[in-house]
Automatic annotation (TrEMBL), chain A:
Record-annotated Aminomethyltransferase C-terminal domain positions: 914-1007
Any Pfam family hit: Fer2_4
Protein's name according to its UniProt entry: Sarcosine oxidase subunit alpha
UniProt GO MF annotations: sarcosine oxidase activity
Keywords carried by this UniProt record: Oxidoreductase
Gene3D superfamilies referenced in this protein's UniProt entry, alphabetically: 2Fe-2S iron-sulphur cluster binding domain, sarcosine oxidase, alpha subunit, N-terminal domain (3.10.20.440), BFD-like [2Fe-2S]-binding domain (1.10.10.1100), FAD/NAD(P)-binding domain (3.50.50.60), Probable tRNA modification gtpase trme, domain 1 (3.30.1360.120)
Domain GCVT N-terminal: from-to ranges: 623-893
SUPFAM superfamilies: Aminomethyltransferase beta-barrel domain (SSF101790), FAD/NAD(P)-binding domain (SSF51905), Folate-binding domain (SSF103025)
Family affiliation: Belongs to the GcvT family.
TrEMBL record, chain B:
Lineage: Bacteria, Pseudomonadati, Pseudomonadota, Alphaproteobacteria, Hyphomicrobiales
Subcellular location: Cytoplasm
Keywords, comma-separated and alphabetical: Cytoplasm, FAD, Flavoprotein, FMN, Nucleotide-binding, Oxidoreductase
EC numbers: 1.5.3.24
Cellular component terms (Gene Ontology): cytoplasm
Organism of derivation: Hyphomicrobium facile
Protein's UniProt name: Sarcosine oxidase subunit beta
Reaction(s) catalysed (UniProt annotation): sarcosine + (6S)-5,6,7,8-tetrahydrofolate + O2 = (6R)-5,10-methylene-5,6,7,8-tetrahydrofolate + glycine + H2O2; sarcosine + O2 + H2O = formaldehyde + glycine + H2O2
Major location (coarse): cytoplasm
Similarity section: Belongs to the SoxB family.
Amino acid sequence: MSSYRVRRPGARVDFDKPLTFSFDGQAYDGFAGDTLASALLANGTRMLARSFKYGRPRGIIGTGPEEPNALMQIETGAHTIPNLKATQVELYDGLVARRTTGWPTLEFDLKSLGGLFSRFMPAGFYYKTFQNQKLWPKFEHIIRQAAGYGSAPSEPDPETYDHSHRHAQVVIVGGGASGLLAALLAGRAGLKVVLLDEQNECGGWLLSSPHSVIGGEQASAWLKSAVGELQSLPNVQVLTRTSAFALHDMNLVLAVEQLQDHLPIADRAAHQPRQRLHRIRAERVVLATGAIERPLVFGNNDVPGIMTASALTTYLNRYGVAVGKRILLQTSNDHVYQGAADLARAGCEVVLADTRTRINPAWEKRVRAAGVDVRTGFGIAYARGRRAVTGAQLVKLDAQRNVVVGSGPSIDCDALGSSGGLSPTVHLYCHDGGRPHWDEERLAFVVPEAGRAKSGIYGVGAVTGEFGLQNALEQTERITRELLSSLGKSAPTSSGNLKTDEPDATPARRIFRVPDGRAEGHGKKAFVDFQNDVSAADIHLAVRENYRSIEHIKRYTALGFGTDQGKLSNVNGFAIAADVLGKSIPEVGTTTYRPAYSPVTFGTLAGAHAGDTFEPRRYSPMQAAHVARGAEFEPVGQWLRPWYFPQTGEDLHAAVRRECLAARRGVGIMDASTLGKIDLRGKDVREFLNRVYANAWTQLAPGKCRYGLMLDENGMVMDDGVTACVADNHFLMTTTTGGAARVMTWLEKWHQTEWPDLDVYMTSVTDHWATAAVVGPKSRQVLAKICSDIDLSPSAFKFMDWREGTVAGVPARVFRISFSGELAFEVNVDANYGHHVWEALMDGGREFDITPYGTETMHVLRAEKGFIIVGQDTDGSMTPLDLDMAWAVGMKKPFSFIGKRSFARSDTAGPNRKQLVGLLTDDPQIVLAEGAQVIERADVTPPAAMLGHVTSSYYSPELGRSIALAVVRDGIARRSEDGHKSGRDLLYAYAGGKAHKVTVVSPVFVDPKGDRQNV
Amino acid sequence: MRKDYSSWSLFTKGLRHNEGWNPAWRSAEPKPSYDVVIVGAGGHGLATAYYLAKDHGVRNIAVLEKGYLGGGNTARNTTIVRSNYLWDEAALLYEHALKLWEGLTEDLNFNVMFSQRGVFNLGHTLQDMRDIERRVNANNLDGIDAMVLDAAEVKRRIPILNTSKSARYPVLGASFQPRGGVARHDAVAWGFARAASKYGVDIIENCEVTGMDIANGRIAGLETTRGTIRSERVGCVASGHSSVLAKMAGIRMPIESHPLQAFVSESMKPVLDTVVMSNAVHGYASQSDKGELVIGAGIDHYTSYTQRGSPHIIEHTAAAILELFPMFSRARMNRQWGGIVDTTPDACPIISKTKVKGLYFNCGWGTGGFKATPGSGNVFAHTIARDDPHPLNRAFDLARFSTGHLIDEHGAAGVAH
């Protein structure tokens, strides 16, 4: 065992379980129960980082999420994690850690050369220089290379994450003494309780002071029995290694549970997620988040070996590590005294310099009895040492004012702890809008004792400023009883004796920056924020330059911007700013506390929504059939639709050509299952349709279908589809594939917020139906082979009719509608029969050489007919009139419809609008780029006026040439009816630097009279 | 204007313990009256004051701010600057801004760290690629730098991007604007404040407007928490609360205010040297000079004035970022926050005169105002000084919501069939 190890009774490391680990390639020993930080300290490692700006040597300061310096790269390869705080990494056998700063080496950091010129690099210096925009990228490159701590992994994450939803009556954040007592009381009252603690075991500060006394027994014994009782209560769940990182409105606590990170990689269970995000909605939230000790600000206070005083105590009592042999403690309050006594009893030489002249006599007696050398009225002017602290120069302070009145001794030491008081962990309380109160007596921003009981948020213990153990426990009991009664419960029994052996507290000294007798900025650098190298002088400078709002000070100096989120630095910063500004601390206020309390893994936030399950892939019921036939797929919204069905040796163009000709001349079949389908019922459905569609629905009889255009409030087309009348009060609407959810939400919004009086019920049935479109002159013959109970004759089953019947032995709805302009039947069956019916149609169509086709052929066929695709040929700026679809607008409907009023707007009604047209290139083999801009002249020197753009463009196998749809300003008037190709009908389409000559024509290229679909 | 920020001044002041620095701007007490009052000391408002003073010779100007200057969306955005918009009106306005960005550091004698590291807009579907092609062609014809890149080229330029064909939404290509980039958001507010202050502009913080004095259809002054301030010209640039201010003048703004969230990772070594945006998976990211991934999320669908949003939005955005960059799975979110964005029906701003003579509004920038900061201030200053819109903001008139002449940047598009 290293000489820094001390076998402390009550320590939480298991000296019988030695472990090995490595740091920067060197092997070290530790024990089960260690953190990486405690193990490194036990090995004598002091400097393990270099500072962000000046490259100064840095060591461990804290014991938990407040740690600003010891940021580690843990593990390598795919398992690597950047920026973990060594204080939060549980040691396991074989752990591999690396430094994240110090280049080229920790011993010699290039930035430390820059640090020599630090006086020329005050806060915000970069705003004042590097002003040449041309050279800035070069400067910036250097700045970027110098910045950053750990490295992102370069490989995909081998581990998984998940989310869990919980509902609790009481969620308690923090498993220290107060949190445990609150959980016991609520648990005994029978409430459903969740207790969260970020550490590997409950206990909080009790783990660092196992010998304090609660109700006559040792704290360690009290802790053991409390945890034991909680574990025995079925209504209480204790989640350790679970960090509550955010509190959102309506008492939603977000917490991350670490499930695997404390295990050697080889021991991690493959089925177990690495971390789990708990979303806990609670009736009552109890914040028992405790407090974090705040260091004092003095010269060279960043030298490795200088810590918070409580960290020295924790490392000693909890981890069995005496960080130094000769320890100097600097304090302004009583909190360090127990630790001072413990360190002295553990064999350290301890000097305790208290800035106060009047100290607590009871504590003084105890520490002197333990052998502590107590000096009162002294502050540290500056520390000595560079890579490890070697001592400190003390100065005599005025009894009242924070000024130097005389010199003091120089004290040698190899570890130094300071305490300027405790800063309650108020973060969660503030996340959802709470503001902390400044308590001038306790020198802390606290959660008010009453919390926000009206919203169900309570604070107990140190977070409210009750720093003494006995006071905290008594307050916790009182507050928890109030909470219980608010839920109609009472604590069944007394909590027992909560008496401790602490002396009554003596007031702390109000001191944050220990003076060194020199003007700020003239003496040694005194750091407020270690991670961002913000010194007290930087705060002075910010104020001098009129960055006086605390938010400006923060943003100008970077105070509190680090991965520790200012847990050690913020209050010191606020206080120093208040002094400079001549304001009180509450007048200065705090910056905003935002989630996350401590950093949260991206993977945990995403949970299962990563990789293949980022979003579900939706497939039609016929997917297996398409895969078997070698389809290529196109993502459309969440769906994957067959794009084309290549046969051996075919590319997209060859396949599409074959598919198109089959549908035009023989028979094709397409899977249309993905179209959105909404089932509408109720006596007012017709009226509802009248209002949400541009056209009229009053007359549509059962057995008939109609195409409808849906408009937004601006009168612009937002979706389209065919809706069928099933019965007088029952309709089936289809939407675009990608628009299904949007339309459903849209309809519900209008129904619920504007027309709740209409009797309409909507159900999304997209997934319930499978749809096969049989398309082409021979489609009737194909269908007839497997459907005998529907009269398919042209006179009995007309275009835009639908019929109920049996197809391939399955109940079906057959629609005679067409998106290709050909005779076509869309067969709708229960989705479970989709694959069966598809195969039956393929069988029935074999003798007609039925050809499956995908979305690309569908696009070509519909473009040949000038049928629009919403979202491709429209972009939210096209009215039905712009699309030359006045026939789909029922201006005479008695009640208005969505978008109608906008038609009267001067611009919407005016001339020169962009309108849908067809375009033909001079060279029939040139297929224009979709997205080509339509311009008037071949000259493309910017700025060139644009008249519109190409929305759809294909090679038409039917016509043996290219065709395109476009929207063009005043396009309808430009259409050449007789192909004269001169004047206004002659334009250019520009894409990728080239302009092609085009003629504006009608968008209907094939069968302009529409005869084919009516046969 | 004297350039008192330079390497030389850093050197000389550094020798004297940095005690010789002057206030970056002057904090003023409100005077009884001004020629022009700007409401809102964000980037846009301060830029407006700066250009009013610099380009239009107006000297007696106040900028009122209810909190601290630059504390609204200027302090909360993800700092992306680009001008590759679809419609001429928008593209030309943002391009005007981009050109000003390119000289802003030198103009203000304040390094706003405008870093032209390029902006990629990824395409994941065939329709995305059609839209990209259309936008890039339009940009080229408007004289804006833009290009279409295929997936292989995107991968070459952003090696860490997941361009695998087996991704849930594979990357098919991207548009790229090389002149786009990022800037240091706070510095923009401070730089404009300092430069405006040098022209004598009064910057008055902690001064909230509580009422408007309007007589005979003209603005006469403002009621504020620091007293009455007379002015016959008032420009309101108060993102997040524009409709609240407009209501004081009896104007119903076509605006909804929504929370918009963003978050940053912990600081890491440089790994992403450009800006990547994806509408389809809905996330965008860049890496700051300090090493943090700066990530923007979508807006919350409900309306709100609290500067915080719903956690599921953050979760979805993290998932989107991992879809683009799976290797960030083990990186960690350090801090999240929210701001309030004023959104218009066509996702384009309103820079306009109003029915009240002398009262002007510059608002409705939605999620994209930061990139326009200098351009917005520049044309708004023109509008106020001349009582007539600059040619570049004429189309952004309030009247368009009556005439229907919308500049629909988001459209109702999306994926169909």
